[in-house]
Amino acid sequence: MDSIEVVLIMMLAVVASAYIRRVLPGTIPLPLVQIGLGALIAAKSEHGVDLEPDLFFLVFLPPLLFLDGWRIPKSGLLRDKGTIIELAFGLVVFTVIGAGFLIHWMIPAMPLPVAFALAAIVSPTDPVAVSSITATTPIPKRLMHILEGESLLNDASGLVCFRFAVAAAMTGAFSLQTAAVTFFWLVAGGIAAGVGVTWLITWVQRWLTRHFGEPPGSPILVNLLMPFGAYLVAERLHASGILAAVAAGVTMSYVELSGHAMASTRIQRSAVWDTVQFSLNGVMFVLLGEQLPEIFRLAGTSLEESGHLNRWWLLVYALAITAGLLVLRMAWVWTSLRLTIFKQKFRHQARQKINPRLLLATTLAGARGTITLAGVLTLPLVLPDGAPFPARALTIFLACSVILLSLLVASIALPRLLAGMTFPAEPEEQQEEDLARRTAANAAISAIEKAQVALMESDACIDPDVYPEAAARVIAFYEHKLKEVDPESEQAWRKTDSAERELRLAALAAERNTVFDLARHDHISDETSRKLVREIDLMEARYR
């Protein structure tokens, strides 16, 4: 009962954090508010929360990674795939090696495999934290897409490196050949499991719906369980459950383009997933704050055992590791940009100059968050021989400190760094949206004309002027959309009779199918299609 009360209090803290952030002065990011509330809960609570690492990993990571994979704009991911892969894989390995040796040099009592494990788990970045920080600060959309893509992939690469480092710490041995084979299976098996589970569940769900109908709420529940199914299947195959959850999310974004889901289901599902994402991310940061006092105490004890009697060394280590991560990230980003400019020069392309402010912004935007916390808490409690895992408390403390310091640095520096900067609009995105609106509106007008004829033939007793008048009103609506594509300028339309309702539903179905078709054939991005389909779904919900 006490555990349930703690969980409920944490959920209330997540709710309160959103309101507290609005009344606090300045631009304090939401994660820091939630961490503060967690520390307050720890101060007022008589007992802390005992976390089971494997259960913690299973509950929090699959849905968050699944949603990241589902919602990331894949057009931007493919366009900047070279830069994203360099950051997500090359930077992670560079960080693990550089920061690992730095940590072991500073803290000799921490074995090298444990130092590599700490470096690996602080390598993934968190776009949720960055989005919260930059909510009121202008940031180039393309840079945000790169950061989101980096975070999606470096979650997997960082956690895989972490897994290898922990295995080396547990066994005391590391084989490069074995690691390469294991890495290949982790990646291939994880991706295959995520894709296979998603397609299988989708196929079964469609078959059941065709033969037995769709029970209310069932598709949403199935969708919520999908990342856990992909994760567990991959883990049973000794593959990467992390990559399985990511692959399931990416696959789900393509499944969505089939348009089989009902409009009401899509609307409700989007709201449910927004709530799940907000709740899980919030609870993670509240939990971090709740764990901090005990982590600090255990880390101090671990530090004393290593020969340092002054606990201020904890702060020195945390600052040094955070600074080292920033230096490594800046060096990698700068080198990557220089190589890009060199390639442009070699290919006789127009060369772009490196903007120092954007270079620094990309460096500072590497804030750590929920993935780092979830991963580090899965460190084993004991070694195979029963001895305590070396420097476990110190490792957890330093990882949590990096989260806090990176959030503080980003929240203080990013708004000031980007203030006053203006960025050119993304013409390609606007052109895609205009194309989709015009094409969908034309398809809707054609569908209205066909539906009008069919309705008049099926109901010959009605006044012959009813359907033409209703069709004219609905067609006028779409002709207005062809002239003015700005959704904010659309005026509210009054309620219509039954004939107009049927025509509107027919037009909306045709409009939505056309948007899906454009996205399937890569004429528009899935981000644009989701935006337009949501507008259509919301409009359809008015007439259901």
TrEMBL record:
<dbReference type="InterPro" id="IPR018422">
    <property type="entry name" value="Cation/H_exchanger_CPA1"/>
</dbReference>
<feature type="transmembrane region" description="Helical">
    <location>
        <begin position="216"/>
        <end position="234"/>
    </location>
</feature>
<keyword id="KW-0050">Antiport</keyword>
<feature type="transmembrane region" description="Helical">
    <location>
        <begin position="55"/>
        <end position="72"/>
    </location>
</feature>
<keyword id="KW-1003">Cell membrane</keyword>
<protein>
    <submittedName>
        <fullName>Na+/H+ antiporter</fullName>
    </submittedName>
</protein>
<keyword id="KW-0997">Cell inner membrane</keyword>
<feature type="transmembrane region" description="Helical">
    <location>
        <begin position="182"/>
        <end position="204"/>
    </location>
</feature>
<keyword id="KW-0915">Sodium</keyword>
<dbReference type="GO" id="GO:0015386">
    <property type="term" value="F:potassium:proton antiporter activity"/>
</dbReference>
<feature type="transmembrane region" description="Helical">
    <location>
        <begin position="389"/>
        <end position="414"/>
    </location>
</feature>
<feature type="transmembrane region" description="Helical">
    <location>
        <begin position="84"/>
        <end position="107"/>
    </location>
</feature>
<feature type="transmembrane region" description="Helical">
    <location>
        <begin position="156"/>
        <end position="176"/>
    </location>
</feature>
<keyword id="KW-0739">Sodium transport</keyword>
<feature type="transmembrane region" description="Helical">
    <location>
        <begin position="358"/>
        <end position="383"/>
    </location>
</feature>
<dbReference type="InterPro" id="IPR004709">
    <property type="entry name" value="NaH_exchanger"/>
</dbReference>
<feature type="transmembrane region" description="Helical">
    <location>
        <begin position="312"/>
        <end position="337"/>
    </location>
</feature>
<keyword id="KW-0813">Transport</keyword>
<dbReference type="InterPro" id="IPR004705">
    <property type="entry name" value="Cation/H_exchanger_CPA1_bac"/>
</dbReference>
<dbReference type="GO" id="GO:0051453">
    <property type="term" value="P:regulation of intracellular pH"/>
</dbReference>
<feature type="transmembrane region" description="Helical">
    <location>
        <begin position="240"/>
        <end position="259"/>
    </location>
</feature>
<comment type="function">
    <text>Na(+)/H(+) antiporter that extrudes sodium in exchange for external protons.</text>
</comment>
<dbReference type="GO" id="GO:0015385">
    <property type="term" value="F:sodium:proton antiporter activity"/>
</dbReference>
<keyword id="KW-0406">Ion transport</keyword>
<dbReference type="GO" id="GO:0005886">
    <property type="term" value="C:plasma membrane"/>
</dbReference>
<keyword id="KW-0812">Transmembrane</keyword>
<feature type="domain" description="Cation/H+ exchanger transmembrane">
    <location>
        <begin position="12"/>
        <end position="419"/>
    </location>
</feature>
<comment type="similarity">
    <text>Belongs to the monovalent cation:proton antiporter 1 (CPA1) transporter (TC 2.A.36) family.</text>
</comment>
<dbReference type="Pfam" id="PF00999">
    <property type="entry name" value="Na_H_Exchanger"/>
</dbReference>
<keyword id="KW-0472">Membrane</keyword>
<keyword id="KW-1133">Transmembrane helix</keyword>
<dbReference type="InterPro" id="IPR006153">
    <property type="entry name" value="Cation/H_exchanger_TM"/>
</dbReference>
<dbReference type="GO" id="GO:0098719">
    <property type="term" value="P:sodium ion import across plasma membrane"/>
</dbReference>
